């Protein structure tokens, strides 16, 4: 009896569900069942569909060109070249045809496509040669995409250009002692004309009296310092350090390079400074003495960089601008 | 370290059974047994050495093979030498599938067999619910919920398509191979290389045929003679010539290249396409029912068509050697550097007549011959002059 009641209540519940109008059911019912033909005309390719394909769900019907009639082609084509059109004068002209210069003609970027194919083929050929990690590979400045576009005069996509640069970087990682000539020649086309390391500054020299020269600038001051091994004497514009720089901070900063490396008693400094003010001249001297010291001891570079003597301070007095009182100061804001 | 007497317990039987379980010729069995004996003896000697604690002398091939003192180049050279010596050692597995051979040495149309197509998975269609009923004639049946394409039908269509490619190549036509999916680029480039045709593996720019001047106008063209030699001096004339269209398009993924096939249809360019069970066969002139999702199948089909093109090109060049030209020459080309020629001298006229008579091109009748002589005499060089036709 309980079972019967349960089944009855179940039936009642089902009927109630059926009668209850759910909006989802109506929505489904409103759309007609998809016809067999329309489902097959939709593109069902397995590759990632692009937006254009998804939007255009039913492409326009067309019929492909009819099959080629080779017999007709033979009748029209070979043999007498001068047909109904303009006749040609000489025998050689009758043998000529116009063809695309590159097999990548129909890509609209034939030069880039050919370059890409050649680089891929080259990489496949030399893939087994030993390589160095990318950080140890020679530093190369590759052409930018804009420079490449100017070179080829083609609408090259940035992403595809970067894929090509990726291949070039991999080719560059081949061990320098084993890199074939053809790879070097192939890479040259994609390098900028000026490479980092092309211009090497002349190394500083120590003359016959043991002096090394260094030049430094700060604001509008410039300083020249000659550093020679000695006892620790310093002369600036003919005066001693204490005489020239009244401020202790300036005295310290002038020979900061020697102080930071604890070589105050090992070198003598003879310096000339011009321009600017006292502190500017002191800071200029910092740079000059550091550069001269580097000529004596190049291994001190990391230490001097940490001490802050290597970088030329680029700050200078900012110019006054129209509409401002000074470089940044503006006149008082007035409501009306 | 004490090595348990594996050799004593299992060695002879294990090694012998391992060898004899493979199929070998009867003449080799004796040598295998001898080899098994040798290896057991080696194992036993190794065991005794290890158990006795005697240091085993390491085999030293070269003293400085991997030492830090030799440079990378020297080490690499030594490695290559070693490789040359040792690469022939080991068992020889012959007649197995090497994927790179489909690209480096593709099969020709004569090598197309049902076994090749089956191995390349050309028979695998899509799920039955996704089919295009127009492809019913190509479908053999259903298995595991997908349609199976009849491979004999595939082979027949592939042979027909390769004949078309061969004939178009023989007639000096522009054959364009298109394959825009990932991984199809190498197959398409190789096919174009063999057939001396053209390739496309990036997206087809819509309008390259219908609006060719805008899209392909800047791409370079050249003038070639019947022996495939570039003839210089036509740069200015080429600049003014219309953009080239393909004479035949081979598309290995027509589902993604609807626009290309539509443009070809509008311009009466015949197309060949790999038609899967869900593709529309009316999109192409010469369908090849096969699996377009399998790279191996595409490599086989592209390879076969490339080889067909290669055969056609060879035929064309052989005919060119004999002096026969199989294509329609370009119209409107003027000999470079002869724009100012006004009237031809009598010697030149005589030369032209001699050339006409010695021409190996077929001349049908006397009327054509006289037309030819008149044409040569009147219209030498300057195409800008207005012609007076009789």
Automatic annotation (TrEMBL), chain A:
The lineage of its organism: Eukaryota, Fungi, Dikarya, Ascomycota, Pezizomycotina. InterPro entries: Ribosomal_Su5_D2-typ_SF (IPR020568), Ribosomal_uS9 (IPR000754), Ribosomal_uS9_bac/plastid (IPR023035), Ribosomal_uS9_CS (IPR020574), Ribsml_uS5_D2-typ_fold_subgr (IPR014721). It holds the Pfam family Ribosomal_S9. Residues 317-336 have a biased composition (Basic residues). This is Small ribosomal subunit protein uS9m. GO terms for cellular component: mitochondrial small ribosomal subunit. One of its GO terms (biological process) is translation. Belongs to the universal ribosomal protein uS9 family. Transmembrane segments: none annotated. Residues 65-88, 316-336 are annotated as: Disordered.
UniProtKB/TrEMBL annotation, chain B:
One of its GO terms (molecular function) is structural constituent of ribosome. GO terms for cellular component: mitochondrial small ribosomal subunit. Residues 369-390 have a biased composition (Basic and acidic residues). GO terms for biological process: translation. InterPro entries: Ribosomal_uS2 (IPR001865), Ribosomal_uS2_bac/mit/plastid (IPR005706), Ribosomal_uS2_flav_dom_sf (IPR023591). Transmembrane segments: none annotated. The keyword Hydrolase does not apply. Keywords: Ribonucleoprotein, Ribosomal protein. SUPFAM superfamilies: Ribosomal protein S2. Residues 368-390 are annotated as: Disordered. Pfam families: Ribosomal_S2. It comes from the Eukaryota. Gene3D superfamilies: Glucose-6-phosphate isomerase like protein, domain 1. Belongs to the universal ribosomal protein uS2 family. This is Ribosomal protein S2, flavodoxin-like domain-containing protein.
